[in-house]
Amino acid sequence: MVQIYKINCTFARLYYMKMKIKTIFFSLLLFFVASDVLAQGYPVIVPSATWTKPDGTEEEGETMSSAAPLIGHFYANPVDDEGFTSHYEWRFTREKETEPYLIRYEQDTDFTFNEAGTHIIVCYATFTNGTQTYEYKEEYWATEGVPITCTVSSSKLEMPNAFSPNGDDKNPTYKPKVHQSIVEFHATIYNRWGQALYSWDNVNDQGWDGTYHGKPVAQGTYFVEVHARGADGIEYKIRRDVNLLRGFTESSTTGPTQ
Predict the structure, then answer these.
(1) Which of 57, 77, 102, 154 has the smallest number of Cβ neighbours within 10 A?
(2) CA distance 82 to 41
(3) Which three-class secondary structure state does DSSP give residue 193?
């Protein structure tokens, strides 16, 4: 009986070791199969955007609200696309519209938004490798994808009627008092005889410093004429007097009217 018991214990140990080896074998097999599947992953896109605002500052994000001109830099960011032939379509659509107003056929693209309102941006992508095809198109963006959006604000433009280039760095140049989403701009300063003294075409420029050919002009009344257009299509035609006040300082009881 003792001998039979020993034989049974030996068989039990052998059976246990056999089962353990089989378990390890199948675990390793499963690991290598899973690794092989992961190594042959299918291509995906991870679209992203960075933005350059009118003042030159940059921000990242899939949503943006800003004045115009707003520059968008768009990246498809494909992943696991090695060996695949890719095709990209960046589609720009106005809110509440169905057809894009612009399509760009490139992996990464830039666009300057000069029109007020909300713009929706998506990236269509197709990857092919032999009989394999992966698409990220209308159905994907309707069910899974999150579009990139930007909202361009309506325009504003106001010109002051005075400035004081007297060396105290307070109101030293003549420039727009308020401006927002101005996409076209041209201003000219005239003296009372109609002679053009200074012109500028960028609403963000420092403006007129009260000089002509590098020499300060006399205190007095001048004239500005502005032609501009906003991102919302509004046309600005401004003509008004400009009072150049050299004697004004912060300690004065009265000063330039804004």
Answers:
(1) 57
(2) 10
(3) coil
CA separation, residue 2 to residues 13, 15, 33, 36, 133 (Å) = 17, 20, 47, 51, 68
Closest by CA position to 118, among listed 65, 57, 74: 65
What 3-state DSSP class applies to 134? strand
Q: Burial letters for 53-70: b for 16+ Cβ neighbours within 10 Å, e otherwise?
A: ebeeeeeeeeebebbbbb
What pairs with residue 161 in β-bridges? none
- Work out the number of other CB atoms within 10 angstroms of the CB of residue 38: 9
* Number of neighbouring beta carbons within 10 Å of residue 180: 19
pLDDT in tens, the chain (258 residues): 444 444 444 444 544 454 455 445 434 433 443 344 344 489 999 999 999 999 999 999 999 999 999 999 999 999 999 999 999 999 999 999 999 999 999 999 999 999 999 999 999 999 999 999 999 999 999 999 999 999 999 999 999 999 999 888 888 999 999 999 999 999 999 999 999 999 999 999 999 999 999 999 999 999 999 999 999 999 999 999 999 998 755 554 444 444
Distance, in Å, from the CA atom of 124 to the CA atom of 133, rounded to the nearest integer, reads 13
What global pTM score does this model have? 0.73
Amino acid letter, 237: K
- With CA atoms as reference, report the closest residue to 49 among 68, 76, 81, 87: 76
Q: Quick check: 148 and 161 in contact, CB under 8 A?
A: no
